[in-house]
Structures are given as C-alpha cells and as structure tokens.
Automatic annotation (TrEMBL):
<dbReference type="Pfam" id="PF00403">
    <property type="entry name" value="HMA"/>
</dbReference>
<dbReference type="GO" id="GO:0005507">
    <property type="term" value="F:copper ion binding"/>
</dbReference>
<keyword id="KW-0479">Metal-binding</keyword>
<keyword id="KW-0186">Copper</keyword>
<dbReference type="Pfam" id="PF00080">
    <property type="entry name" value="Sod_Cu"/>
</dbReference>
<keyword id="KW-0862">Zinc</keyword>
<protein>
    <recommendedName>
        <fullName>Superoxide dismutase copper chaperone</fullName>
    </recommendedName>
</protein>
<dbReference type="InterPro" id="IPR036163">
    <property type="entry name" value="HMA_dom_sf"/>
</dbReference>
<dbReference type="GO" id="GO:0006801">
    <property type="term" value="P:superoxide metabolic process"/>
</dbReference>
<dbReference type="InterPro" id="IPR001424">
    <property type="entry name" value="SOD_Cu_Zn_dom"/>
</dbReference>
<keyword id="KW-1015">Disulfide bond</keyword>
<dbReference type="InterPro" id="IPR006121">
    <property type="entry name" value="HMA_dom"/>
</dbReference>
<dbReference type="InterPro" id="IPR018152">
    <property type="entry name" value="SOD_Cu/Zn_BS"/>
</dbReference>
<feature type="domain" description="HMA">
    <location>
        <begin position="6"/>
        <end position="69"/>
    </location>
</feature>
<dbReference type="InterPro" id="IPR036423">
    <property type="entry name" value="SOD-like_Cu/Zn_dom_sf"/>
</dbReference>
<dbReference type="InterPro" id="IPR024134">
    <property type="entry name" value="SOD_Cu/Zn_/chaperone"/>
</dbReference>
<comment type="similarity">
    <text>In the C-terminal section; belongs to the Cu-Zn superoxide dismutase family.</text>
</comment>
Amino acid sequence: MDSDRTTKVEFAVQMTCESCADQVRAALQGKPEVKSVSIDVSKEEVLVESSLSSTEVQALIENTGRRAVLKGIGGSERDLGSAVAMLAGAGNIQGVVRFLQLSDKACLIDGTIDGLDPGPHGLHVHTLGDLTQDCLSCGEHYNPFGRQHGGPGDAERHVGDLGNIIAGPDGRASFRLEDSQLKVWDVIGRSLVVDAGEDDLGRGGHPLSRETGNSGKRLVCGIIARSAGLFQNPKQICACDGVTLWEERDRPIAGKGRSKAGTDVPAANL
C-alpha cells in the first residue's frame, strides 16, 4: 500500500553560504509534506524529514539550482536497516529503489524508474541475486513459506509480491510503498525485478496467475545491496570508480558509462 509515513533523508548539497541554505530551506519548507529541515553549510549537508519520496525531495533541492546527492535514509525513530537496488535494462530503462525497515512489521519501498511504457508493471523481489543471464537468472519470486502468488495486501502471497507500480505518460514510475511482510535483512543479496505488464495479483484466469501474476516478461532488474543509513556515508570519493561525489552525480546510475572503464559498477554505499 502507499505510505504517508515520514522518513529522514540525508543529502550532500553544493552550498557555499547561508543564503544558499536559506533558498534550499525555503524550497523544502514550502511543502506541507515536509516536517523538518536541518542544514549544515560547512559540511554541505541537508537533512529532511518528510513523507515525500527521496526523488521528490531531491527535485525540490535541485530546483534551487544546486546539485544534491542522496547519502543516507532512515526512519524517524530508529534505524533497522536499509538497502538499495540499482536497476538497468533494455533501452533507456533505469532506476533506483530503496528499502528501509521502519519497524519489525513495516518496510518502506521508495523508488523511481524511468523509461517504462506507460501503465502498470509488476514489481517483485526474486530469490537470487544473479544477473549472469540478465533478469532470467534471478530465480523465482522470493517465497520462503511456499505460498501461492497474491497481492501485497493478501495474507496468502509470496513475500516478494509487491503488486504494481504505475508509469505515467513520460515513462516514469515514482512510488513510495509500505509492506508488512518484506524484511530488509531477508532480501539483501536477492534481486528486484520489474515486469513488462500488469500483475493480476493472482486473481486472473490464466494458469500463471497463482504462480507469477501473469505479468509478462522480466523487463529490468538489479541486485538488492546493503546501503547507508543516516550519517553512515562520509565518502567524498567513490571507491568503486575513483570519481568525486559530484563527478559521480553526472554518471548513469547503472549500465554502460557508470565507471571510467564503462563497466556496470553501482555506486558504493548509496
């Protein structure tokens, strides 16, 4: 289900003076979904508590003309773990999906994926973190209890059944979901897959409805890796490819062109 719970997101933001901070603060505090804003100009850090997605917060900051890089995400009360999947697929499809364990019974899934065909697309956690054959080697839906396929609100479902995300006319799907069965510590090292079509949530008449949701071919995928929580990412140089934080901002989030050598190397600790 969609989530309106507040979380905290930490950004590195290019700022040189208090007037820069004032502009960033004004852009953020003008939104009713923003609960608090804390800015440290000397460290070029901005901490925001809100019910907006991390992509929406980043867009608000960057609308002031300053670059922003997300460094960490955490719950409003305690940090139980976070993870990230950087997705890349055929054509120009790419995206980032973040997982944040809010409590023992609530996991936040915050993501933005671009390049999709407009309309609904099935979203699932798969058992294997294996991309040797692209999405085909990710295994089946993560289903540790041997249940039938269902929707995210169903008791009878695969743990990895996250329902559908909706891409708009521009091909972007931006979502912020809360799930009661998924646990960050159980999915790190597995994979996240977006399908070409709509998941029927096990309610269709097709033979695949109770197995996969009959949502078509696997379109884009990525391995779920541990990511930094709040104040856990002090890097200024990316260890994976030797570029600065701001140089890294100019590179694709995944796929060719990600590293200096053009190999597919995800950003460390993001």
